[in-house]
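Hi V.,

You were right to ask for the full record rather than a summary. Here it is.
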Amino acid sequence: MMKEQHFQQLNEDQINQIFDYTHRLNISYKDVQYEMVDHIASGVEDLMDENPSMTFNRAMYENAGQYAHSFFTDIISNKTKALEKFWLKNFSLFLLKFFTIPRIILTVILFLGFKFVFDNFQYDQILDFILVLYVLIIVFLLVFRKKRLTEKFTSQYLILESYRKAVNVMLVTFLLVPAWIMSQTFREEYMTPIMNNIHAVFFTSIILMLYSSKIVFPKFLKNELSKKYNHLEIKLA
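Predicted structure:
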């Protein structure tokens, strides 16, 4: 659908005044600001088209009067919920479709590797193995630390804030929960064949979620930014 052409085009100073107006409305997210400014500017131009003698300030006043007091806060609230659902849906679909042939092979190899360790090593040796594994995980996180979105940068854009929250939900669900369950069940007296299989599944889940959160999910974000938010010129590591 082509954007309606207006006879009255706002100049840069007038657009900046609308940006100032959104600041006064406590719209702090830059991506939401751009959407609101575009929406308000279009409404102001409509009014000025209908009445060519109308000043910009008058058109701003009349345009503002069209909105209820909670209009803008409701937009932010609804957009936040929609974006968080969007990310969780995409992440969940990825996990559901994760098991392509190469990834199935990788997952089976990981599982069998952990199972072999739990079935054949002594309890003290397994503890040493887990310690080494945790060190490797920390190294992995440090190597990919530049992929992490800083709080200061994330808080400026709703699209990034919603992404961060959705990733945290996935990490808690598929990483921290398995890790916590393991901490409660990993005892020498529990090293039975069934529990060894369960522990192998937990460790496999942790590795796959780390891979997804640091390698795959950032690609989803960059793709979304390039498609819908390219005008913001958000640069990610």
